[in-house]
Amino acid sequence: MADHPPEKGISIILPMRDERLLARQKIEEVILEIKDSNHEEIIVIDSGSVDGTGEIARNTLQESSLPKNRWEVISSDFPGKTRAINLGVSIANFEIIVMMDADAICTPGWLSVCYEIFTNSEIGLACGIENFEDQNYLKSSEKMYKSISNRRRLRQSNKSSIVIAEGSLCCFRRSCLANNPLDDRYNADDTQITLICSRNNLRSIMSPSLEFRDNPDNSRGDNFWRRVRRGRGITNALLRNLDLALPRNNQINPKEFRNTASLYLIAPWIPVVFLSLCLSIYSEIYNADFLPKNEILAIIIFLFLLICFSSNFIRSYLLGCLIMVLAQISSLTNSGKDAWNTDRSENYVR
Question: In the chain, where does DSSP find H-type helix?
Answer without folding.
Answer: 23-34, 53-63, 81-91, 110-117, 141-159, 189-199, 220-239, 254-261, 270-288, 293-308, 312-333
